[in-house]
Design a protein that fits this description.
155 residues, alpha/beta, Rossmann fold, 21% strand, globular, binds flavin mononucleotide
Length: 155
Amino acid sequence: MKALIIYVSIHHGNTKKVAMAMAEVLNAKLAKPWEIKPEELAGYDLIGFGSGIYYWKHHRALFKLVESLPEMREKKAFIFSTAGIDVPFINHRKLRNALRKKGFEILGEFSCRGWDTNGWLEKMGGINKGHPDEKDLERARRFAEEVMNLREKYL
Ligand SMILES: Cc1cc2nc3c(=O)[nH]c(=O)nc-3n(C[C@H](O)[C@H](O)[C@H](O)COP(=O)(O)O)c2cc1C
């Protein structure tokens, strides 16, 4: 099974840690959205899309890539994020809808807290310092295993 993880991590590298933990399990290639040509996705069986949450949604570069894609015909995908306030039901909504609109089938979603010093939070040292921590990363690895098992059922 060939897996690709496309991610953006601009604030503290929080999401990069999660992406790397998942990539290890999935033996996935890691890439930024701006490094990917739309036609490249055809070569993968499973594609992860993740970033920090910036103003209640994923990074705009992910949306730009997804919008540039052709119809994906039930291509298997997963979504992940790190956020100051970990509410994936809200934070993932826009990307979930954008991926479904392109025909992706979303096999699972992962999120955890991430160190956040945005705006006024900086003055108090931020929130979620130390996250993602080893426990969060272990959860990310287990999630990746589950998604991989689900994907292999389709092969
Ligand atoms: C410009 C900006 C906007 C943010 N907006 C939100 C937000 O709307 N909701 C939230 O829970 N966290 C928000 N955060 C916190 C980040 O989602 C959190 O720190 C995340 O772990 C950053 O991931 P990264 O280090 O991979 O970029 C924001 C951070 C920044 C820098």
